[in-house]
Design goal:
The chain is α+β, with helices and mostly antiparallel strands. It has helices at 60-98, 100-103, 171-185, 266-281; strands at 11-14, 23-26, 50-52, 110-115, 120-125, 129-130, 138-141, 149-154, 193-206, 212-225, 238-253, 256-265, 284-285. The chain has a seven-stranded antiparallel β-sheet, sandwiched between helices. Strand 6 (129-130) and strand 7 (138-141) form a beta hairpin.
Amino acid sequence: MASSAFAFPSHIITKGASTDSWKSTSLSSSRSLPTELSSPCPKPNNNSHLLFSRPISSGPRCQSAKKSLTDDKQACAVGRRKSMMMGLLMSGLILSEANLSTAFASTPVFREYIDTFDGYSFKYPQNWIQVRGAGADIFFRDPVVLDENLSVEFSSPSSSKYTSLEDLGSPEEAGKMVVRQYLTEFMSTRLGVRRQANILSTSSRVADDGKPYYQIEVNIKSYANNNELAVMPQDRVARLEWNRRYLAVLGVENNRLYSLRLQTPEKVFIEEEKDLRRVMDSFRVEKI
């Protein structure tokens, strides 16, 4: 440790009636020090009320002695730091060898969204954010993968009255209806754009609330020509713009058709399929 810029004085001198009557309140009396380490104290100034002597360490030999003491302290500090570093290193090795899988295991956390006014609820990943003004009744999006989102929509009871899912027909018929709706929404006015949709699966399940739900999975690809104004067909080469998985859950309550819709890129779906299916299975419609 380097010597401080301010060293505590050897003694404090208070002013008396005359020069001979100066009194010294010694913290480390200069008389008790060896002659070679003592430093001459400046003459007191009669205009001062409180004077400090020159620090003891001002002498060259004292600096040498203090340097030796400083070296000892530095060596001690280095030893302590080495001990701490070794302790941290050992603890890190123990963690990495014994509990590596446990320490770095990440369990997805879900939140539950409940709409008591419109009568539905579902769970969603807690890191997803709500986006307002997206056109749906509720809309959440992954802040990292912007093409991954979910939304809930429902029909108006004044325009159509649903009494059960059987009003839609079978799950297969409901799947065709969902695909037509998707393709209508994704219709593009650009030249040379083509959407290709495939129904991957349709199913029906009864949830723990005793109500039936339809689940529909669709893959939609979008293709666009790299030169849509070309005259010759061989010059209009279609390229893949995006490839997405669409998951829909349908339920009927309050004379309304409710639809939970999930959208995600196919590559992301492969990695997050378990979490996305948990969102699908959590969808419920409630009586209002």
